[in-house]
Amino acid sequence: MAAAAAPTSTAGEAQVIRTGAGARFVIYTLLALFCLYYLLPLYVMVVNSLKPLSEIQAGGMMALPKQWTVAPWGSAWSTAQIGVAQTGLRPFFLNSILMVVPAVALSTVLGALNGYVLTKWRFRGDTLVFGLLLFACFIPFQMVLIPMARMLGLMGLAGTVPGLIFVHLVYGIGFSTLYFKNYYQQFPTELVRAAQIDGAEFFTIFRRIMLPSSGPIAVVCVIWQFTNIWNDFLFGASFSDFDSQPMTVALNNLVQSSTGVKEYNVHFAGAIMAALPTLLVYVVAGRYFVRGLMAGSVKG
After folding, report:
1. Separation between Cα atoms, residue 77 and residue 75, nearest integer Å
2. Partners of residue 82 on adjacent β-strands
3. Which DSSP string corresponds to the chain?
4. How buried is residue 240: exposed, middle or buried, by Cβ count under 10 Å (0-12/13-18/19+)?
5. Which residues touch 129 (CB under 8 Å, ≥6 apart)?
6. Which of 40, 92, 164, 174 has its CA 20 to 30 A from that of 21?
7. Span 62-114, pLDDT tens digits
């Protein structure tokens, strides 16, 4: 008697892992509990940023506001005490934007260019160069503080926003190169050779062939770099002065500054303001993050 043929799936058919109702209930319950646990601090911050200070001092931080107010947000943005000045977080938010956008753009473009060269224009010693760039990814921040401060002083960039851009560009280019090199390794080299035969030059191939196909990994690089640079505190505290401080340093100064009363509602509002840009980046582009990481992981 002939054995029954094993079920086959057509090409491209999605493979679905089916679970029982009991297993799904346990999984969804655990996920819901983890979600609540993760969102609880955010809930506390949002709720208490919309309360008058008197309600917070009376206790019940988990309760909804009895009197809703956005005054703490206005104070955190424009009038809160930051160090010795009542400037709010607004100028430091702008400093962070002026720092993050160029640093992310430059590190992404240079990382793409490095990955292009290291995969499609091989040269003697390219493995050593990539190894050194990769090694730079694992150097602790604390080890580069004094050498970097010395270099910024020699370049005349100490205590400035361009100096912070330079610091984050240098520290991030190793990661961006790693991302793009791994991605471009799966890119057909025959297309590059064909373009060379047609007379395309180095930058023409990069601009018209490589970059247009780099969307998934570029999103990964932008999210990674934006998050790291925006949330950085050590470099901002070490290489900036009062006029060039990023948002994270100003937020710390907001919490540490005191005129006799700790305005917890203002502190919560400031913390949410500092977290909103990275949150928005993940909401807008987060679904492309894993997709971009996986784009160059399987050949074929």
Report:
1. 5
2. 85
3. -PPPPPP---TTPPP-----HHHHHHHHHHHHHHHHHHHHHHHHHHHHHTS-HHHHHTS-TTSPPSS---HHHHIIIIIS-BTTB---SHHHHHHHHHHHHHHHHHHHHHHHHHHHHHHHS--TTHHHHHHHHHHHTTS-GGGGHHHHHHHHHHHT-TTSHHHHHHHHHHHHHHHHHHHHHHHHTTS-HHHHHHHHHTT--HHHHIIIIIGGG-HHHHHHHHHHHHHHHHH--HHHHHH--GGG--HHHHHHHHHH--SSS--HHHHHHHHHHHHHHHHHHHHHHTHHHHHHHHHTTS--
4. buried
5. 118
6. 40
7. 889 989 999 999 999 998 888 777 888 999 999 999 999 999 999 999 999 99
CA distance 199 to 88: 56
Q: What would the pLDDT profile of 122-141 be if each residue is shown by its tens digit?
A: 888 888 988 888 888 888 88
> How many other C-beta atoms lie within 10 A of the C-beta of residue 121?
12
Alpha-carbon distances, residue 190 vs 117, 138, 195, 274 (angstroms)? 15, 34, 8, 46
Spatial neighbors of 231 by CB under 8 A, at least 6 apart, are 248, 278
Tell me the CA distances in angstroms from 79 to 91, 206, 254, one per residue in order: 11, 48, 11
Contact 130, 196 (CB under 8 A): no
pLDDT in tens, 16-47: 556 678 888 899 999 999 999 989 989 999 99
269 touches 71 (CB < 8 A) = no
Residue 86's CB is within 10 A of a number of other CB atoms, namely: 13
Dihedral, CA of residue 250, residue 256, residue 257 and residue 263, to nearest 10: 100
Give the predicted TM-score (pTM) of the model. Answer: 0.83
